[in-house]
Automatic annotation (TrEMBL):
Forms a multiprotein complex with MMACHC, MMADHC and MTR. This is Methionine synthase reductase. The gene is Mtrr. The keyword S-adenosyl-L-methionine applies. It catalyses: 2 cob(II)alamin + A + 2 H2O + 2 H(+) = 2 aquacob(III)alamin + AH2. The keyword DNA damage does not apply. Keywords: Amino-acid biosynthesis, Cytoplasm, FAD, Flavoprotein, FMN, Methionine biosynthesis, NADP, Oxidoreductase, Phosphoprotein, S-adenosyl-L-methionine.
Length: 699
């Protein structure tokens, strides 16, 4: 079918890290096979489309970032459609289908997509296809794949409906009925996380095959028994199925090695976030004992000679490199060991079939090969199915080729989730597991995402320590597993720990350690202000802080700031302050024992601590977790929130703490108000809406 005879639809995407764009590109690629033509644009390119006059169906793929915000590329679009002066029939002519991407680990799941969807509905736009909400917590593909499958029928029905509206046919009622049928057929595409979790848990209950491996060459061997699947081995029904695999993504990047010498770009060119600052690390302190389960470090940066500004509660980002030894290993596997320092030129391949192909913004046009692999590409990223599909073409062994096809196929969806996604497998792991796979450098640039800067909460106050910025982090550890035979440290935390190793002092558990030698090591940072997670503007308002583990980090800045304000303004009225802190062991990972100092000088009114792994000989068991402490202080917590109109801050792990804390607050409100749980949940929702219940959490 020639291009002119294909029916057009508008395809818009709004992406933060590339997921939504990749899914939109998959839709664009599949459209031709269905006799359709997708006119694809980033939603920010408002000069290339016009929803006010758009007559064809519109498909929108949009992600969510931050605390439920639309991605940066959608900010102008969202601001435009949220204009209060727009009439309720502004988009009455518009038919659209929307696919939202999110992560149910976070409070405002898919809120970027929901925001756009809700506003389009308010302005009169009509769904031609049910909204899909894909959850990265259990696997986007669980919703994305069936949503795309059902899209084509709905699009054709919508286009036919549009055609008849224009007077080209008279059977409007018939088409309306069939459109209704199409809508009902896809009604269940918004799959719930709970159902999918049950499915995954059921599949995960089967013991995974143990892969033997030799550490000298890290060769993976399939289990002797054929009853257990693994990364490299499948069992029926997958091993005997005819496979539905994704279309092969078109190649679009060309890499040319050059003899000329040249300099690498400055690290500031790697981010579009505005000004970056190269600052020295002046202090490093290990806050945990050597025998603690996690290693927590405090780093101090000298920002005195920069224009970097922050408030307690803000975050900032660190531009970090990939592990150099992993890059060397990757170069070796690719047969490029001697070419790491060679200059390469990256450009779009002539004659590519990829629509709107351009060199990725995070890849410099000219730099050394090592610069691209160390600073530009997320080589630890979990490979997407499109990448696996492309790797099939680079694999010579028939068995390995088949297994890669299975892992990217519809039939192998649960194997992909279990052995790649949930196992945190990266490109290096795949290349070890499938040794006949030899991808090109251009393929890596096409499929590996941008190496993202890592975000950290500020743990200091510029009022208390002028010209200094402190932050605290755990050194992340990824233990070895059958699918990943080598243990690894986090990309950024591992690099920072190695960088400051010469600075670490024997003295532990103090912010005021003296005698650390000055460091010449510098890191590049840029600000990431938090619009809400700040101290109350009115100093007389009381507040509660809940921060177990490194979640205490921003509250150190809060307390430092409050202490200086008390010293500078003795005539001000200051509200009471509560801190709930928890860790595993009092003697191993009580990060800031000098919290007692804040308590003694009156900055901190109430300090409640618990230790989850310490044994107790008391008749009444001591509280183990911060939510237990909150329940013991139920009356005071309810008073601060309800009577005194105070603030409530939570910082730390989302999966294992933040939800438990919010549940505890609901229970407290229900009990103290003598109301049912639903009413208590409404009160908590109102506190969130009023920005009085605030979270800074991570998964």
């Amino acid at each position: 079918m020639c291009c002119e005879s294909k029916r057009r639809f508008l395809l818009l995407y709004a992406t933060q890290k590339g997921q939504a764009k990749a899914i939109a590109e998959e839709i664009w690629q599949q459209a031709g096979a269905h006799g359709l033509e997708a006119d694809m644009h980033c939603i920010s390119e408002m000069d290339k489309y016009n929803l006010e006059t758009e007559k064809d169906p519109v498909v929108i793929v949009i992600s969510t970032t931050g605390t439920g915000d639309p991605p940066d590329t959608a900010r102008k679009f969202v601001k435009k459609i949220q204009d209060k002066t727009l009439p309720p029939d502004h988009f009455a002519h518009l038919q659209y289908g929307l696919l939202g991407l999110g992560d149910s680990e976070y409070m405002f799941f898919c809120n970027g997509g929901r925001t756009v969807d809700r506003r389009l509905q308010e302005l009169g736009a009509q769904h031609f296809y049910d909204t899909g909400l894909a959850d990265d917590c259990v696997g986007l593909e669980l919703v994305v794949d069936p949503w795309i499958d059902g899209l084509w029928l709905a699009l054709k029905e919508a286009l036919q409906f549009q055609k008849e509206k224009e007077g080209m046919n008279s059977a409007v009622d018939t088409v309306s009925n069939s459109l209704s049928t199409a809508l009902h057929a896809v009604h269940e595409l918004n799959l719930s996380s709970e159902v999918q979790n049950l499915k995954l848990e059921d599949e995960g209950a089967r013991a995974s095959g143990v892969l033997s491996q030799k550490l000298d060459d890290i060769s993976l061997v399939a289990p002797a028994r054929d009853t257990e699947p693994s990364l490299v081995h499948s069992v029926p029904p997958v091993s005997q199925s005819a496979l539905n695999i994704p279309a092969l993504p078109p190649e679009y990047i060309e890499v040319q090695f050059q003899d000329a010498q040249g300099e690498n770009p400055h690290l500031s060119s790697l981010t579009s976030e505005g000004t970056t600052f190269e600052v020295p690390v002046t202090k490093a302190v290990q806050l945990t004992r050597e025998d603690a389960i996690k290693t927590a470090l405090l780093l101090e940066l000298d920002i005195a000679d920069t224009a970097f500004e922050y408030q307690p509660g803000d975050a900032f980002c660190v531009i970090c490199p990939n592990n150099v030894s992993e890059v060397e290993e990757l170069l070796h596997i690719l047969g490029l060991s001697g070419k790491g320092d060679d200059l390469v030129c990256v450009k779009v391949k002539q004659g590519t079939k990829k629509k709107g192909a351009s060199r990725p913004q995070h890849i410099p046009e000219r730099s050394t090969l090592k610069f691209i692999l160390i600073w530009c590409l997320e080589i630890r990223a979990i490979p997407k199915k499109a990448f696996l599909r492309a790797l099939v073409e680079c694999t010579s062994d028939v068995g390995e080729k088949r297994r890669l096809q299975e892992l990217c196929s519809r039939q192998g969806a649960s194997d992909y989730t279990r052995f790649i996604r949930d196992s945190n497998v990266c490109l290096l792991d795949l290349l070890h597991a499938f040794p006949s796979c030899k991808p090109s450098l251009s393929l890596l640039i096409e499929h590996l995402p941008k190496l993202q800067a890592r975000s950290y909460s500020v743990s200091s106050s510029n009022l208390y320590q002028p010209g200094r910025l402190c932050f605290v982090f755990n050194v992340v550890e990824f233990p070895a597993s059958p699918s990943r035979p080598v243990s690894r440290k986090g990309v950024c935390t591992g690099w920072l720990a190695e960088l400051v190793a010469p600075l670490l002092h024997p003295s532990k558990n103090t912010l005021d350690t003296k005698g650390e030698s000055s460091s010449t090591e510098k890191i590049s940072i840029f600000p990431r202000p938090n619009n809400a997670f700040h101290l109350p503007a009115d100093s007389s308002v009381p507040f509660i802080m809940v921060g177990p583990g490194t979640g205490i980090s921003p509250f150190i800045g809060f307390l430092q700031h409050r202490q200086k304000l008390r010293e500078q303004h003795p005539d001000w009225k200051f509200g009471e302050t509560w801190l709930f802190f928890g860790c595993r062991h009092q003697d191993r990972d009580y990060l800031f024992k000098q919290l007692r100092c804040f308590l003694e000088n009156g900055t901190l009114t109430h300090l409640k601590v618990c230790f989850s792994r310490d044994s107790s000989t008391a008749e009444v068991a001591a509280p183990k977790y911060v939510q237990d402490l909150l329940r013991l202080c139920a009356k005071e917590v309810a008073r601060v929130l309800l009577k005194d109109r105070g603030f409530f801050y939570v910082c730390g792990d989302k999966k294992h703490m933040a939800d438990d804390v919010s549940n505890a607050v609901v229970d407290i409100l229900s009990m103290e108000m003598e109301a049912d749980k639903l009413e208590a949940m409404k009160i908590l929702a109102m506190l969130r809406e009023a920005k009085r219940y605030l979270q800074d959490v991570w998964s």
